[in-house]
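Field reference: sequence -> structure
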Amino acid sequence: MAQCGTGDFLAGVIEGFYGQPWSQAERFELFDWMAAWGLNTYLYAPKDDLKHRAVWRELYSTSEAEPLGDLVRACRQRDILFIYALSPGLDLHYGNEADLECLAKRFEQMLSLGCRHFALLFDDIPDCMNAEDVKRWGSLASAQCHVANTLFQWTRASSPDGRFLFCPTAYCGRMAERKLGGEDYLATLGRELLPGIDVFWTGPEIISREITAAHAKELGAVLRRKPLIWDNLHANDYDGRRFFCGPYAGRPPELRGVVSGLLSNPNCEFPLNYVPLRTLAAFVRCEGNWDARQAYLAALQEWLPRFATIGQPVTLEDLILFGDCYYLPHEEGPEAEELCGLAQTLLDRDPAEWGDGASALRRLAARLREFCVRMTELRQRPLFHALSRRIWELREELDLLERYVEFKSEHPGTSGDASFNSDFHLAGTYRGGMAARLQRLLVQQANGTFRCGTA
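Structure field:
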């Protein structure tokens, strides 16, 4: 693929999560994936690189800058845009010339390393300013536009064909509806941001189940430019118990025509991103209808060799069942849904009515538990380490469910569940801890509302 020009569609990956940044080796592997699959953009924005966000005024030391230069060169060798992002909004004084100078010096340092594309991010910050900035700018949007326009013009002098991206403080539909950033925040950005600046958007929500072409087109009219999708569909930094290896879904092919690009901010654990990014690449290039499930199955077939073990081989069928348990934020895959539905049906009925249901549940649960055991024998240890805590939890829950079903089968006349216990799931050590206790206080309903857990 040829290097993108200024007007080209951006398709690729954002390293933009909260958590331990990826290693250099993982990034180089990512670039190889991207080059093979036709993805063209990598945005460097790890929230927990201290000098990306928390101490953005400090320049990188020589030892810190050298690896960044290596990334820039690696991207250039593969015809991938390396975009460097800075996130100064936690404590930026918008009208302070010294702060603007710090921003310029950081971008100048990156220019010296060969970087030609930049981003300024104002996400996840307080939507307020100090009194001097309020008096001068009147609105947060105007203050941010001043900073972005200044940096955009400054970088364009050195990199005329460079892309410049902007992430607003209100970056999804719900935030905009609640007027985060102030009255007419997005409309002000549309009027005052220079036309060459791309604006990020995550969709109706931070993690959007669907992003329609109509939604993006409506936003584009407000921003006076096509939005650039920062897609959190596979992000998991908000929930360390889960990861998502389902397909790129909930976005119609028509979306590509009304946005300036699709960039995925995926799982924190790099080895778990094969299927999400493989299916994103397929989506970007698909013709006609998009079959997310078929893309998922094809990507799992490609991913399967990475599950080589020192013992019994992993089958594609079992990998599909396992992947369906960690599908997408708003849904499990169909085989995981079948397991959950079967379990719910048994729990809602008297054991005398179970028929073959208990045996079917045991077969599915046994397959999953055995798969989890085989994961401990993976030859690719980074993949196992990324999975290990999640698969242990899944094993424990399946084991408890099987024990309960067995107990009810053997004691069909037992009144209630008071006599059931498990020697392997003891109070305090199982589902224990402060967070778990707090979760039991308020129970979220399917419609998003909460009720008291003791009610």
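Note: Strands lie at 10-15, 41-44, 81-86, 117-121, 164-167, 197-201, 228-231, 261-264, 442-444, 450-452.
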